[in-house]
Amino acid sequence: MSDLLDGLNPAQREAVTTTEGYVRVIAGAGSGKTRALAHRFAYLVCEAGILPENILCVTFTNKSAAEMRQRIHKLTGDNDTGYICTFHSFCVSVLQEDSHAVQYPKNFLVLDNADIDAMLGIIYEERGLTLRHMTYSKARDMIEMRKLFQNPDYYRDLIAMPLGALEDKYRAAQTVSDIIFYGYLYQQKKCFGLDYNDLIKVTLYLFERDADIRLKWQQRLEYIMVDEFQDIDKLQYELMTVLCGYHKNLFVVGDPDQTIYTWRGADIRYLLDFDRAFPGTRTIMLLQNYRSTPQILAAANDLIDKNHNRMDKILEPTRPDGVPVRCHHARTAEAEAAWIAGEIDALHKQGVPYRAMTVLYRAHYVTRTIETVFLHEEIPYTIYSGTQFFCRAEIKDTLSYLRMIAYRDDLSFLRIVNQPRRNIGERRIKFLREAAQQTGASLYDTLCAHLDDELFKGTKARQFVQFIQSLASDYADRPISEVLAETLDRSGYEKMLRTEGSQERLDNLAELKQSVYEYETTCGEESTLEHYLARVALLTNTDAGGTRDQVRLMTVHTAKGLEFPYVFLCAMNDGIFPSKKVHTWPGMEEERRLAFVALTRAQDGLYLSEAEGRNFDGSCRYPSRFLLDIDPDLLQYTEQPPEAMLAEARDYISLREKYLLDENAELPLAAGDRIVHGVFGPGTIEAVDQTRAVYRIQFDDMKTPRDITFRAKLERE
Ligand SMILES: Nc1ncnc2c1ncn2[C@@H]1O[C@H](COP(=O)(O)OP(=O)(O)OP(=O)(O)O)[C@@H](O)[C@H]1O
């Protein structure tokens, strides 16, 4: 049989060669599920003769999609790798082909957070809201929650309601939440924008409405594979179920011990109950770990074993013995960072490149001390966060120019019309807004209609319009990289950066040009500007490359699915990891899984550290319960926490555990209940916030409501 099966263990082979029907692979961390997926894809193409365009392979991030594509390309030698993408990206493909069926134009905009913020800016200004009413990030969360839970049918308004009617709904809105929500839907509709939440919703709606289109996609996707199935949410699950409805070939891979996105709607039951939902399912277990040394695995197994609600499975090592897992207790956070820097330096002196070492943490804020020490010790590092490359102003501006050329939408217009300065400031924008409001035209068209007005004399509006028009008329036939270069040149944007002397920003533009070039050369026929813009909106910083020899710093969430020779998991203190925001048992188990994910990223060396001191709220810092979960014989302490501190830590942890709630347990009180509080007297519960474990209570004797923790003693009135 083919070379494709070489280098696979029997369980992996079974996963690769079981092509038909419903297949569930329960894979432990580092057990080669990505390898199995890639080989299965190649097997279908090379051995079974299936066309790549008839296979859908869903990954969790764009980065893993890119890696998967590369792996498959290596195995098949074929450039055409079909649909290897995230759920969102797949939905973009569906909608770009078929959104007309729900009366949404093909050239809809995919909105990212910065676009949403720009829309919020417009709404806030129009309705006199300030950040004190609600910050943008809260507003975004609120919109998401309403779309997911309170107003799940919102998309019908977005799609079917005429723009005028949606505007009326917005203007009539009274509460801050309604104003923002309907204002946002109105803004979305105005530019035919779809955010991440909408993509799947609208695709599902499309399939529900149009049986022919649904059947076309069902027939096209002869084989469907889904990676990281443990983190799938309800909508994604629905989409999968619809898509496999014709050929009934669905292959899912997941690790129940690595579910870390419950807070975003992931539900492990889809993996655990898969066999019940899809009768005839074949289940394959991948438990041999190829990634980590037995020492690292022993610590990880011991940790995850403390979760009660889990499927029993133990990772089996295949690698030879390595060095012990090192653990360090420091007196201060600075001393902890210095220890990490010292270990990194020692490894580097032994010939380990910086890029082989990664520092992981639960929360971003802990990096400050580490960065300070790294800077001082001259250790090169780079932080992977959600707000880097594609969110930088110069990248957003450039992409807005490209969007302007393709769509001439208001959002892009507002972002770049005066960037570089064209003397089109607030006063003139206000005029354009009001004029546009009256005619219902876009801001750009309004500007075109008023170019000869006195108001626009003395501005560079005409040059701007000419430049956009000339590119808009011929971009479709040119490579995107060429359009990009001309845009940066003719807009004066690159010149502006040069004049500012901003080398870093120019470097970023160079990086963007490179990424566009790479996109063009890997996308074949699909490389239209619209296609590129829709994809790029789905990218986040972690998708930008990074090959320099630097230590990487990232959160554990970001590290999901990755592996590194040396891992430093820092700030292992209770209240940081596990986060002090956890108030429930399931939440605590999810934190433990997150720690398990962190530990299992390491291949050769694992370093765990924590520091004494005080938290922001003045409370004392104790070692994390997750460190205490691991048998001390499996750890090699450089310095152990003092015995007295360990005893205090244990007391503290067991006290906190007493207050952990069982999420499924019924809360005794609900919104609307009348209560009496020992200090504040009688009041009414306005809302129950499970995640923060608080009741919002309006006390009779107070003007404003208070958040009161579940722990406080409340009597029914
Ligand atoms: N049969 C095998 N023989 C040797 N090495 C293997 C085999 N299968 C996988 N590996 C190696 O094991 C490591 C982990 O594999 P992979 O990245 O596919 O794991 P994974 O199951 O996706 O991990 P995780 O779920 O923890 O992210 C990789 O370095 C891979 O090359």
Question: Explain this structure to me?
Answer:
This protein has 717 residues and is α/β, with parallel strands linked by helices. It is 47% helix and 14% strand. The strands form 5 sheets. It has a 7-stranded parallel β-sheet with strand order 13-14-12-15-16-11-17. A 6-stranded parallel β-sheet has the order 3-2-6-7-1-8, with helices on both faces. Strands 21-20-19-18-22 form a 5-stranded antiparallel β-sheet, with no helix packed on it. It is built from 30 helices and 22 strands. The longest helix is centred in the C-terminal third of the chain and has 21 residues. The chain folds into 5 domains: 177 residues, P-loop containing nucleotide triphosphate hydrolases (Rossmann fold), CATH 3.40.50; 83 residues, no CATH class; 205 residues, Rossmann fold (3-Layer(aba) Sandwich), CATH 3.40.50; 150 residues, PCRA, domain 4 (Orthogonal Bundle); 44 residues. The relative contact order is 0.10. The structure holds adenosine-5'-triphosphate. Adenosine-5'-triphosphate binds next to helix 2.
The major pleated sheet works out as:
7 strands, parallel
The CATH superfamily of the largest domain bears the name P-loop containing nucleotide triphosphate hydrolases
The second-level CATH architecture of the largest domain is 3-Layer(aba) Sandwich
Write out the strand line-up for the largest beta sheet, numbering strands in chain order.
13-14-12-15-16-11-17
Low-pLDDT ranges: 541-545
Helical coverage, percent range: 40-55%
Report the total helices. 30
CATH class of the largest domain: Alpha Beta
Query: Which ligands occur here?
Result: adenosine-5'-triphosphate
